[in-house]
């Protein structure tokens, strides 16, 4: 059921107005990862390669100091990147586990039983979706319907209406509730519901079906029209962490077995509608997150060793060629998002990075967003400073962390160097300063 009343739970809301300017880092996209050197916050086997001056002056390198980036006269005409934290909100809901964008609204799920709705660009709370179940692990919004996967292994559906005021009405639960005796006779407890927690969810808008991945090593296929499970795919030998689907109905699954598997739906086979097309290996590191470019030409996989591997789509259906790896994070990459020519990554190192994909296939780190005090669990991005704005020289990013804080960032590329924006302020030192 929905509720648009103000939540009596105390909260803190503060805004960050400090702007940061930094020079573009050189590309970290390589065919084979180069050897690592020393890095302040890295684990024993991981560190960052030679740090550029802008990264040395970043809050990640000196967490409690304020530094100034010096820019040479030769680089003043090169494109610069400015970024800042536009909004930061803390609710006493526990860890933020999921985030989704739709029609100028941001939906966030957490450890609690509340899905909060935020309005852009003000980033003010405008609604709540409540249930008895807790732990919202995944949220998807399609065709004015909100799909939310919970810790109890069920998916709950809300219908969104815009009649005079924004409203959400819950109208279904997947799987459907069946009497205990009947479910025992039909065996539905074993064939329909996941035997483990759901970890990821994707919607095939072309075929009108839902995919859910779980730690039980399976992917279930749900038909939206009658909310029935039509297939269970034994996809991997280890827990599945991420699932996404492309516009041409190709399914991608990522697992702790260090592989990404590509599946295609076969309408001629009724026993196994989805068949395995190819298995992609991620250098012996568990794959935690997946994302596709808008045209489906590049597939990205974030791994537990901090690397982001990417594959390029070939001429033939299902054909993927390894394109290289992106190096930057020092801990596991937990979430990925792609918009326009940007790739946004969130990591267990509490930082988020904005990467720009260049025409030659290389990737340049435009910004390192530091401010969270816990691993970044979910991320969403859109082009421009406002939702729906068509300005590919800037993007907005929403990050949700296990520290319970939701942040909105704005990143922009400027053509001329502004002398008033040459200082790099540490936002981490002002975190929780009310």
TrEMBL record:
Record's signal peptide: none
InterPro entries: JINGUBANG-like (IPR045182), WD40/YVTN_repeat-like_dom_sf (IPR015943), WD40_repeat_dom_sf (IPR036322), WD40_rpt (IPR001680)
UniProt key word Lipid biosynthesis: no
Organism field: Acacia crassicarpa
Region named Disordered: 23-80
Alphabetized UniProt keyword annotations: WD repeat
WD repeats: 191-232, 233-263, 280-311, 326-356
Protein name: Uncharacterized protein
Pfam families: WD40
């Amino acid at each position: 059921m929905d509720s648009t009343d103000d939540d009596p739970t105390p909260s803190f809301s503060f805004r960050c107005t400090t702007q940061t300017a930094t020079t573009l880092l050189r590309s970290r996209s390589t065919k084979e990862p180069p050897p690592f050197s020393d890095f302040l916050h890295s684990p024993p086997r991981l560190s960052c390669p030679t740090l550029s001056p802008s990264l040395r002056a970043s809050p990640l390198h000196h967490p409690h100091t304020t530094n100034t980036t010096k820019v040479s006269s030769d680089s003043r005409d090169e494109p610069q990147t400015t970024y800042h934290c536009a909004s930061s909100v803390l609710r006493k809901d526990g860890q933020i586990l999921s985030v989704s964008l739709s029609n100028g609204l941001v939906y966030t799920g957490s450890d609690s039983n509340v899905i909060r709705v935020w309005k852009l660009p003000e980033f003010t709370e405008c609604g709540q979706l409540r249930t008895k179940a807790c732990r919202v692990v995944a949220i998807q919004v399609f065709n004015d319907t909100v799909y939310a996967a919970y810790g109890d292994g069920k998916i709950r559906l809300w219908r969104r209406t815009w009649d005079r005021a924004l409203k959400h009405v819950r109208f279904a639960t997947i799987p459907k509730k069946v009497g205990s005796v009947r479910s025992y006779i039909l065996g539905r407890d074993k064939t329909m519901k996941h035997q483990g927690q759901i970890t990821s969810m994707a919607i095939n808008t072309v075929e009108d079906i839902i995919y859910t991945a779980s730690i039980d090593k399976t992917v279930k296929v749900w038909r939206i029209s009658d909310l029935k499970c039509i297939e269970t795919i034994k996809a991997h030998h280890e827990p599945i962490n991420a699932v996404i689907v492309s516009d041409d109905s190709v399914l991608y699954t990522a697992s702790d077995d260090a592989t990404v598997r590509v599946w295609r739906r076969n309408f001629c086979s009724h026993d196994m509608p989805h068949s395995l097309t190819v298995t992609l290996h991620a250098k012996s590191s568990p794959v935690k997150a997946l994302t596709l470019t808008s045209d489906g030409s590049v597939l990205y996989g974030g791994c537990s060793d901090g690397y982001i591997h990417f594959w390029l789509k070939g001429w033939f259906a299902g054909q993927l060629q390894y394109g290289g790896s992106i190096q930057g994070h020092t801990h596991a990459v937990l979430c990925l998002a792609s918009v326009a020519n940007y790739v946004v990554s969130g990591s267990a190192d509490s930082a988020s990075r904005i990467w720009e994909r260049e025409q030659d296939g290389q990737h340049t780190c435009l910004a390192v967003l530091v401010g969270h005090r816990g691993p970044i669990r979910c991320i969403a991005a859109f082009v421009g400073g406002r939702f729906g704005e068509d300005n590919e020289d800037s993007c907005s990013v929403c990050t949700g962390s296990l520290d319970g804080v939701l942040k909105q960032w704005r990143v922009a590329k400027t053509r001329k160097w502004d002398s008033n924006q040459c200082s790099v302020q540490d936002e981490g030192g002002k975190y929780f300063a009310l």
